[in-house]
Amino acid sequence: MYLQLAIRNLRRVKVRSALAMLGIIIGVTAVSSIGIFGENLKRVVLENFQDMVNEVIILPSTTNGYDSIDEKTLSKIGKSIYISELIPVKSKTAKIEGEKSTYAIVYGLNERDVEELFKAEKGKISLKRKCVVGNTLAKRLDIRVGDRLRIGNKEYKVSAILEREGARFDINPNNAVIVSLQEFSDNFNLEYSMLIVKVKNVDEIENFKKFVERSVNYKVKKVEVFELKSIIERINRAFNQVNLFLMAIAAVSLLVAGVSILNIMLMSTIERTKEIGVMRAIGAFRESILKIFLLESLILGISGSVIGGILSLGGGYLITSLIIHRSGDILNLSSLLYMAEGMFFGTLTSLISGLYPAYRASKLEPIEALRYE
Amino acid sequence: MKAKAYEIVRLKNVTKVYKIGYYEVVALNDVSLEIKDGEFIAVMGPSGSGKSTLLNIIGCLDKPTSGEVFINGVSTKKLSEKKLTELRRDTIGFVFQQYNLIPTLTARENIELPMIFKGMDERERENRVREILEMLTLENLADRKPMELSGGQQQKVAIARALANEPKILLCDEPTGNLDSRSGHEIMETIKMLNREEGMTVILVTHDESLKKYAERVIRLRDGRIVDVSSTGN
After folding, report:
1. Same domain assignment for residues A276 and A149
2. Does residue A161 sit in the same domain as residue A220?
3. Are residues A25 and A60 in the same domain?
4. Which pLDDT belongs to residue B1?
5. Same domain, A23 and A94
6. ipTM, 2 dp
7. Inter-chain residue contact B82 with A370, CB threshold 8 Å
């Protein structure tokens, strides 16, 4: 009955109720749409890193005086049951001499690993007394497939120019030359500068780290273990913060909607002063009056939020497809979560805005209210 | 004959002073009054004599500045806001000059409202509403909104609403003041019937001398004081 009464009271002032609800609809749509867009943007960006979550990088512990990783350590780590792939890397900055010359990083890698990690833009990857050159470096030095480069005291034929790579955390080949591990050792006589490890299962990263501590670092900390997962998590967090900020801006429209509900509810309490007096006279407690008025603003809030929530799916889809040109899979759990979040805040706004008018209505003295004309 | 055993309303030296701006208005001045269960009282006097104030104080809508009010033997002085509301809800029925029905509710729902405030369940409410509608022959109007009713019909619904929780006291503030004489007559007959057949105590505030005939006692007020109490012989 209270609900009935509240609904009928809202119907009494249809236009006013509709406008207040519109405010909530706009607010919820704005907040949820932006939330959904941000979430999808994040997903698209993080997809690029997805194949790296199970990657672990092992570097020599320079703080403990190690500048490289020796064969013994490599073979120890290679024995771990947790890993599916182990890519040993050697590297050094050296002078590259072709038609022009410059200093650049030279990597020593297994041919098989290079084929797995990178793609050739021109030529075919081969490291048998040959080398491959990163995209940027090739452009800068005008290097073509078949050219000869002098690195250290050896000469290599360029077998391939690599495709340009996006940001990576392990090896950055764009400005580098890659030779085989064997050639690298012959040339520079250095041990490993980095081991790239792929763990079979992301959940086993911790176990693998423990294994390294036990088998390699048991006396002195020889190596440091970095998991790319934590870097990705940091990116994730940064995106979430930006998203939260954008949603907060959108929430200003909810605030405005809240003020308009506050406004119409206050108007209602004044217009219905006499009615409140009558109800108090015939036995309504203060709480009953409070309930009726709160219900009214809640109905506005809930119905506005539901409509806004549904619209936000469309809105989110629209922004996402306009800005990142990818929106096929908008209907995922996190989108629905943002929709729910918007609806929750829409409802909360109406509840908060309804509190003061309802409280004021309930505090009216019955005799004063009855006299009100 | 009805047994007029106990005092259902007792006022003891009740004074009510209103502050309007810088002025103080004495609405009731040291009024003492006893009303027995089942009595029909008419309170008369010119406007500003304190009639409505007296009614509001008996109805626990207003509190006296000094003095004490007993309803059904209970002093209202120390009752909490909540207890006063319960007292109004269960013991007192109000009939106003302006009918004061809730415009969004149908006649039936208006009658039901005090029962909802009391927390009655739906079946019980339905039965009680049917009973009241029958008693006041309002069945045909039950599903109309106040806007769709004439003044007399609205006032009848208002009386029905006052009966919702079977109160002992019916407080009527100029119930015929907005009605033509025929409707007014019908309303007064209804009120008289409730007094005679249901044994309700009726306190009627009016300045219409013709309504005297319904009452057993007439109390005349002037400037906040009782100036005359007379039995009509009814």
Report:
1. no
2. yes
3. no
4. 44
5. no
6. 0.91
7. no
Rounded to 5 degrees, what are φ and ψ at B174? 50, 55
Q: Do A214 and A98 share a structural domain?
A: yes
Class of domain B7-97+168-231 as given by CATH: alpha beta
Distance from CA of B217 to the nearest CA of A (A): 26
Whether A300 contacts chain B with CB within 8 A: no
Tokens of B194: 């409730």
Say what angle helices A333-363 and A228-271 make with each other, to 10 degrees.
30
B104/A12 CB distance under 8 A: yes
Measured between alpha carbons, how far is B187 from B194 in angstroms, rounded to an integer?
11
Structure tokens, B110: 């208006």
C-beta atoms of A283 and B165 within 8 A:
yes
Under 8 Å CB pairs connecting chains A and B tally to 64
Residue A20: which of A345, A302, A341 has the closest Cα?
A302
Q: Is A282 on the interface with B (CB under 8 A)?
A: yes
User: Which of B102, B104, B112 is the closest to A278 by Cβ?
Assistant: B102
Q: Are residues A215 and A75 in the same domain?
A: yes
Cβ contacts (< 8 Å) between B96 and chain A: which residues? 278, 370
How confident is the model over B67-119, as pLDDT tens digits?
999 999 899 999 999 999 999 999 999 999 999 999 999 999 999 999 999 99
DSSP category for residue A164: P
Q: State how far the Cα of A48 lies from the Cα of A41, in Å rounded to an integer.
A: 12
User: Which residue, among B82, B99, B117, would best test binding to A if mutated, counting the most A CBs under 10 Å from its CB?
Assistant: B117
Does the CA dihedral B98-B145-B162-B209 come out positive or negative? positive
Interface test with B, best of A5, A278, A290, A292 (most B CBs within 10 A): A278
pLDDT at A271: 92
Q: For chain A, what is the domain count?
A: 2
Q: Is A352 left (phi over 0), alpha (psi -120 to 50) or beta?
A: alpha
Do A40 and A162 lie in a common domain?
no
Query: What is the C-alpha separation between B170 and B168, in angstroms, rounded?
Result: 7
Domain closes at, from A228, A250, A267 = A228
What is the pLDDT, as a whole number, of residue B2? 47
Is A5 within 8 Å of B105 when comparing Cβ atoms? yes
Asked if A288 has any chain B CB less than 8 Å from its own CB, the reply is: yes
Q: State which of A204, A228, A252 marks the end of a domain.
A: A228
